[in-house]
Design brief:
transmembrane helix, mainly alpha, Delta-12 fatty acid desaturase, Fatty_acid_desaturase, two-stranded antiparallel ribbon, oxidoreductase
């Protein structure tokens, strides 16, 4: 198959009778970024401080309303209704706080307002409240956007060639193994990435998002990493005081479990945006910024698309124009589709089914045998 072909990709489980998936084109696009930008209405690139803050107020209002209901009324419910009410609270609050996370993510892209200091202040407060090192993540995430799809320089969910896959991987290539892998990924994936750079690009020494002197950051960024760490220390100190005053169970129910749901959604969203059997990855001989940015996948999370401020179903547009505010991304996505044509990628598979399928099909990457484009890598699952 040539690099730009639309080759059918069979899935490994014929019983599921999935439709053959078509590989996305990976040849040089017949359009430029400038031509794509011209198709987007100019107002889509305008950032409104008031409009952006309205989403902060809305999301935080929902968060405090859920908090008030849970802490004021759940203990009044007759047995066993509190055991039903709390899981509902965890799910609703976890989804809502994921929306808060997305707004802070927008601040990191300077898509919140025209004022960088406002974006960084809002982002630092919101992300610190969710135990995210704002500046640390902002800088590594910017490099992810600069190097998307590059096997050497991308920063997150970087697939490995078969020769670098661990010996144990083939023993996890079964339903129990996949379930275990997904549970670990969704529960521990985010802290493991922050602390140990798991799934990130390889560095020549230990890389950690909390280390101002680590290889992830340049000298001019180190002061901001200290600021991120200070924000986390402040939040940790606050939580310690809450535990001291309320006991351990109270913050676990009100804050920790919803935060675990936020972290799980964060990992899931990012994983599904960049992991799909039809998406290519490139080594340095083939990679360029536009092809890398186009090697992303829009997904459909149903009603959660709105809760997550459409970070899920407008990710292609986001990678092309990362400073565009989220409230214009749907309009921009609709505008760029005719220009992108077959280079636009969308999969409407329900996210819970997609997670299982990608875990089954996407284990490592290798170029096609006999393909002249040896720098284009595709997902495989055969051992």
């Amino acid at each position: 198959m040539g690099a730009g072909g639309r080759m059918a990709v069979p899935t490994s489980n014929a019983v599921e009778q999935e439709k053959p998936l078509k590989r996305v084109p990976c040849s040089k696009p017949p359009f430029t970024l400038g031509e794509v930008k011209k198709a987007v209405p100019p107002h889509c690139f305008e950032r409104s401080l008031i409009h952006s803050f309205s989403y902060v107020v809305y999301d935080l209002s929902i968060a405090f309303l859920l908090y008030y209901i849970s802490t004021s009324y759940f203990h009044l419910l007759p047995h066993p209704f509190p055991y039903v009410a709390w899981p509902i609270y965890w799910a609703l609050q976890g989804c809502n706080l994921t929306g808060v996370w997305v707004i802070a993510h927008e601040c990191g892209h300077h898509a919140f307002s025209d004022y960088q200091w406002v974006d960084d202040t809002v982002g630092l407060i919101l992300h610190s409240s969710l135990l995210v090192p704002y500046f640390s993540w902002k800088h590594s995430h910017r490099r992810h956007h600069s190097n998307t799809g590059s096997l050497e320089r991308d920063e997150v969910f970087v697939p490995k060639p078969k020769s670098q896959v661990g010996w144990y991987s083939k023993y996890l290539n079964n339903p129990p193994g996949r379930l275990l892998t997904l549970v670990i990924t969704l529960t521990l994936g985010w802290p493991l990435y922050l602390v140990f750079n798991v799934s990130g690009r390889p560095y020549d020494r230990f890389a950690c998002h909390y280390d101002p002197y680590g290889p992830i950051y340049s000298d001019r960024e180190r002061l901001q990493i200290f600021i991120s760490d200070a924000g986390l220390l402040a939040m940790t100190s606050f939580l310690y005081r809450v535990v001291w005053a309320k006991g351990f169970a109270w913050p676990v129910n009100v804050y920790v479990i919803p935060l675990l749901i936020v972290n799980a959604f964060l990992v899931m969203i990012t994983y599904l945006q960049h992991t799909h059997i039809t998406l290519p990855h490139y080594d340095s001989s083939e990679w360029d910024w536009l092809r890398g940015a186009l090697a992303t996948m829009d997904r459909d999370y149903g009603v959660l698309n709105k809760v997550f401020h459409n970070i899920t179903d407008t990710h292609v547009a986001h990678h092309l124009f990362s400073t565009m505010p989220h409230y214009h991304a749907m309009e921009a996505t609709k505008a760029i589709k005719p220009v992108l044509g077959e280079y636009y990628n969308f999969d409407g598979t329900p996210f819970y089914k997609a997670m299982w399928r990608e875990a089954r099909e996407c284990h490592y990457v290798e170029p096609d045998e006999g393909d002249a484009n040896k720098g284009v890598f595709w997902y495989r699952n055969e051992y």
